[in-house]
Amino acid sequence: MEIPFTKYQGAGNDFIMIDCRQKSYLDVSDSARVVRMCNRRFGIGADGLILLKNHPDYDFEMTYFNADGREGSMCGNGGRCIAAFAKALGLIQNECLFLAVDGLHRALIQDNGWVELQMQNVDTLEIGPDDTFLDTGSPHLVKFVDKVSEIDIHSEGKKIRESARFAPGGTNVNFVQAWDDFLFVATFERGVEEETLACGTGVTAAALVHHVRSLATPGTYSQPISTKGADLEVRFTYTASGTFEDIWLCGPAVRVFEGRFVSVV
């Protein structure tokens, strides 16, 4: 079987996109095939694989698989990339509403190529003495450090991800360095089991935690964030009751190449 695909990347977080509106090329039983397609030596290479499907009530539905072949929780950069993919297919213009595993998402495509994705509201943060845990569509531990460059992201992230504290599902782990109005974030992603060049739900988590740690003042804010893949921005409203609403993840979503994968598994 040949599977037509398009490769996209959002801040270096890369994805295989498959249009499944006319034919269902893959489903949740195809984990071995997903692993092979995402493999960087024996396949196309990607942090994850995304299916674009028809939906009767919305512009489309997004199904996301991690590189380990398992259906994953929400992927923020993947959500921005699928919006760009939908526009390239002629399915939408500059705005869409689609269904993902964590619910509905709205996306806006700007003239400069940036895609803005509305995330789910965040009501709860588990604030500890050394780190903070929260769910931004995917579970994230946020840990502030003096210098990200001095942290072994893979070994330290893997240790936390596999710790008994987060068993059995594990967590994504974000190491964050903060300046006055700027953050640098490096993320170890579960499912990829490596550091990725960026993580959309991770930088969203970092922005929200940073606000609680510093200002904690109600209002609407915009937080610039740098990753190893590109610069991103998170906009949000912090309410008087201590919740986050109207959260937007903003950044580039770029088509890399397209082709046909010859399936052998």
Description:
This protein is of the alpha+beta class. The chain folds into 2 domains: 2-118 and 253-262, Diaminopimelate Epimerase, Chain A, domain 1, CATH 3.10.310; 125-246, Diaminopimelate Epimerase, Chain A, domain 1, CATH 3.10.310.10. Helix content is 17%, strand content 42%. The chain has 4 helices and 17 strands. It has helices spanning 31-38, 76-88, 153-161, 200-213; strands spanning 2-10, 13-19, 48-53, 60-66, 95-100, 103-109, 114-118, 125-127, 132-135, 139-144, 172-178, 183-189, 194-196, 219-226, 231-238, 244-252, 254-262. It has a 17-stranded mixed beta sheet that branches. The longest helix has 14 residues, at 200-213. It is globular, with a radius of gyration of 18 Å. It starts with a strand and ends with a strand. The mean pLDDT is 96.
